[in-house]
TrEMBL record, chain A:
Role of this protein: Required for the export of heme to the periplasm for the biogenesis of c-type cytochromes.
Protein name as it appears in the record: Heme exporter protein B
Membrane-protein topology: Multi-pass membrane protein
Species, as recorded: Larsenimonas suaedae
Keywords, alphabetical: Cell inner membrane, Cell membrane, Cytochrome c-type biogenesis, Membrane, Transmembrane, Transmembrane helix, Transport
InterPro entries assigned to the protein according to its UniProt record, in alphabetical order: Cyt_c_biogenesis_CcmB (IPR003544), Cyt_c_CcmB_bac (IPR026031)
Automatic annotation (TrEMBL), chain B:
Record's function text: Required for the export of heme to the periplasm for the biogenesis of c-type cytochromes.
The name this protein goes by in its record: Heme exporter protein C
Keywords: Cell inner membrane, Cell membrane, Cytochrome c-type biogenesis, Membrane, Transmembrane, Transmembrane helix, Transport
TM regions (residue ranges): 21-44, 64-84, 96-117, 129-149, 161-181, 201-221
Phylogenetic lineage: Bacteria, Pseudomonadati, Pseudomonadota, Gammaproteobacteria, Oceanospirillales
Stretches assigned to the Cytochrome c assembly protein domain: 15-184
Subcellular location: Cell inner membrane; Membrane
PANTHER family xref list: CYTOCHROME B_B6 PROTEIN-RELATED (PTHR30071:SF1), HEME EXPORTER PROTEIN C (PTHR30071)
Pfam families: Cytochrom_C_asm
Length: 231, 250, 250
């Protein structure tokens, strides 16, 4: 029975993951906009400060990371909202499969559509901010790992505000303070790479944060969804 | 045992029991705080390095301690409310949040004022100041979340979850901010630890701290009582209470 | 909805492939209800904003029962349904599934339940077929592996020929039917339906009524909130809420 159970859990995970990917792809604008937002914010910084490449490169890690963080934050509001409005969230909570598993599947799909593209796009924006090509890989890696952590943490907030109309700003207010450690170490990785220092300790800490968030967040988000839903 | 706890934690019972406690706490706070303040600000000797500006410590340290204790109290209340569904815990968490936020602000403000004589600037990205600022933002988030819900109960539970998430994150935030601070060597001037304060300096500080806790207890208790009356205003015992007091006045 | 013609095309092609595979061994038409239904309310109470909607509600629902929950608007019908489905924790008392309180028997209980609420639970950007196969997957259905079951369920609610059209392009009644197709699809003994007849035409109402009656006749159980009187079958239980804290159970 347990192996049978494991198999059907995997199936439920896969179907939910694919369903969310499909929904995102069909709403073309939904997955495109975080990316465009990311690029726009990055464009704003040189305009507001200076186009001087030597100055820009010192700010580049911070600019890339703050822009990515905001893009993830803005995309999170939609993570559970639509499912809540059409009743599929209710049905997920009433499924014999544990809710944290389905929530995790949704988070994974969200990362594939709204986290990973940011990481893949970072070299292009890095070029514009005068980052040397030697740090592109590290930047992309830090953003890929960091955006997953950001999504995991932010999902708790998104779950809590799912029943609140226009919860976008509220979500930012709640979640941004919790994002600070990820920001510090994520941008730190890129800065260390720029200085030519070994980045593995920082990457390891970023990884540890990801692991901790992965262990706690699906469970906490599912609990928060149950709370928000029964209100 | 459980029944006893539930009985004690019922709003009605708590209201009755706390009727006598609140004035005592207020009295304690009103004695300790002026005595400590007067002693600290006027009679304690000035610091040999920082001169009179060090006296800000008598405001700064108690408010900073309260800011953190208040968050701890909210986290404990959150657990009690979420696990055992004791409504009193939610009420305490609700009234503690604005107090904690104002104490955090007081700590930040007194720190900024202190910064002028010691660092020559209002704000330094010192690790402790920065994590205090983040704590203030966490407080704001929790308060905003609570009031975003139409139903009080839902808001309370959401705020409880967020305080728990915040309490798990606080050490991480603190640690990472310290790390970040040591990486940027700019703000290396932190407060030099006063080498063993003389008695005449720390006794008033102790009085101020105790007084601040008494004030904290008094404010939370009184506001909890008010909140109980507000929430239970339809209940029979509250109506009886009101008619009783009206009768006495006439 | 931003479902362009391209996606409609892709979806249609995929459906054509599936239709080719459709000659699965026909599913056994005789529905088998394996689990025994035993859902009890013990001293159930619901408090909303310091007001009791109902208290001390006692009932039990077993195999073959068709239960109607009735009462005026705001009397707590939907709250009761949410308690019975385990979405809302009772303010007092407990709901038992096969003798165990709901939080402890959650997985087993939800594996025996189909719930249809006010919201359709249907994704508009997906086709009816995609919607149902997702439900099959998260429902851990026994014969989950056969796509044929989804086709049959859609046929049964009169959506033959609409399987591959995104739900957004269907009418309100048809969307509702997609949600109700879950009753055919998932082999579950307990149905809890909150106002299932809204937005369904007369023919659909008759079919649904027949379906529910047949389900109960075969040993399943159903709990329905509705103002609509069933013509073909009598309710074996009634839970009436009067909206002033009182109730009657027949």
């Amino acid at each position: 029975m347990s192996s049978e159970g494991g198999h059907s859990w995997a199936r439920a995970f896969r179907y939910t993951f694919v369903r969310d990917l499909r929904l995102r792809i069909r709403h073309g604008s939904e997955w495109g906009s975080p990316l465009i937002f990311f690029a726009l914010i990055v464009t704003l910084f040189p305009l507001a400060t200076t186009p001087d490449r030597t100055v820009l490169v010192t700010f580049a890690p911070g600019i890339l990371w703050v822009a990515a963080l905001l893009a993830v934050l803005l995309s999170l509001d939609a993570l559970f909202r639509e499912d809540h409005d059409d009743g599929t969230l209710e049905q997920m909570l009433l499924s014999p499969v544990p809710a944290w598993l389905l929530v995790l599947a949704k988070m994974c799909a969200h990362w594939v559509m709204a986290g990973l593209p940011l990481a893949l796009m970072s070299p292009v924006l890095g070029l514009m901010l005068a980052l040397p090509s030697s740090v592109f890989w590290v930047t992309a890696l830090s953003l890929a790992l960091g955006s997953a952590t950001l999504i995991l943490i932010g999902a708790i907030g998104a779950a809590l505000t799912v029943g609140v109309r226009r919860g976008g700003l509220l979500l930012a207010l709640m979640i941004l303070p919790l994002y600070i450690p990820v920001l510090i170490f994520g941008a730190g990785v890129v800065r260390l790479a720029l200085d030519g220092v070994d980045v593995t300790p920082y990457l390891a800490i970023l990884g540890a944060m990801f692991a901790a968030a992965l262990a706690l967040s699906p469970w906490a988000s599912a609990a928060a969804l149950r709370l928000a839903h029964s209100g | 045992m459980w029944q006893w706890i539930h009985k004690w934690a019922s709003p009605k019972h708590f209201y009755r029991v706390s009727t006598r406690g609140a004035p005592w706490l207020w009295g304690l706070a009103l004695i300790l705080l002026p005595v400590g303040a007067l002693w600290g600000l006027a009679f304690a000797p000035a610091d040999y390095q920082q001169h009179d500006s060090f006296r800000i410590i008598y405001v700064h340290v108690p408010s900073a301690m309260l800011a953190e204790s208040c968050f701890a109290l909210m986290a404990v209340c959150a657990v009690v409310f979420l696990v055992w569904k004791i409504k009193l815990a939610d009420i305490v968490a609700k009234v503690a949040a604005p107090f904690g936020a104002s104490m955090t602000f007081a700590a930040l403000f007194s720190g900024a004022v202190w910064g002028i004589p010691t660092w020559g600037t209002w704000w330094v990205w010192d690790a402790r100041l920065t994590s205090m600022l983040i704590l203030l933002f966490l407080y704001f988030g929790i308060i905003a979340l609570r009031y975003a819900f139409a139903r009080e109960h839902s808001g309370g539970r959401a705020a409880a979850v967020l305080s728990l998430v915040g309490v798990v994150n606080l050490p991480i935030i603190k640690y990472s901010v310290e790390w970040w601070n040591t990486l940027h060597q700019t703000a290396s001037f932190s407060l030099t630890k006063a080498p063993s304060m003389p008695e005449s300096m720390w006794v008033p500080l102790l009085l101020m701290m105790l007084g601040a806790y008494a004030l904290f207890g008094a404010v939370v208790l009184s506001r909890t009582r008010n909140e109980i009356l507000r929430r239970e205003h339809r209940a029979r015992w509250v109506r009886a209470l009101i008619t009783d007091t009206c009768d006495k006045e006439h | 909805m931003a479902c362009g013609p391209y996606w409609t095309f892709v979806v249609k092609c995929r459906a054509r492939e599936r239709r080719a595979r459709r000659d699965d061994p026909a599913r056994d038409n005789e529905r088998q209800v394996g689990l025994r239904v035993q859902l009890e309310g013990r001293q159930l109470g619901c408090e909303r904003d310091e007001r009791w909607l109902f208290q001390a509600l006692e009932f039990s629902i077993e195999d073959g029962d068709l239960c109607r929950v009735e009462g005026p608007n705001g009397s707590g019908k939907t709250s009761l349904i949410k308690m019975l489905t385990g979405q809302l924790e009772p303010s007092e008392g407990a709901v038992l599934w096969q003798g165990k309180p709901l939080p402890k028997a959650r997985a087993a209980f939800h594996g025996a339940l189909v719930y249809s609420g006010h919201l359709s639970g249907v994704k508009e950007a997906l086709t009816p077929l995609e919607n149902l196969s997702w439900y099959q997957a998260i429902g851990i259905d026994d014969d989950a592996r056969s796509v044929a079951a989804c086709w049959q369920a859609l046929d049964a609610v009169g959506l033959k020929g609409f399987e591959d059209i995104p739900v957004a392009q269907l009418s309100a009644g048809q969307r509702r039917r997609v949600g109700l197709a879950r009753l055919h699809l998932l082999n579950r003994p307990l149905w809890i339906l909150d106002e299932p007849f809204t937005a369904i035409d007369r023919e659909g109402v008759a079919a649904l009524e027949h379906l529910v009656a047949e389900h109960c006749h075969k040993g399943g159980a159903a709990i329905v909130t509705t103002h609509h009187a069933f013509s073909s079958v009598a309710f074996t239980r009634r839970i009436g809420l009067d909206g002033h804290g009182g109730h009657h159970v027949l």
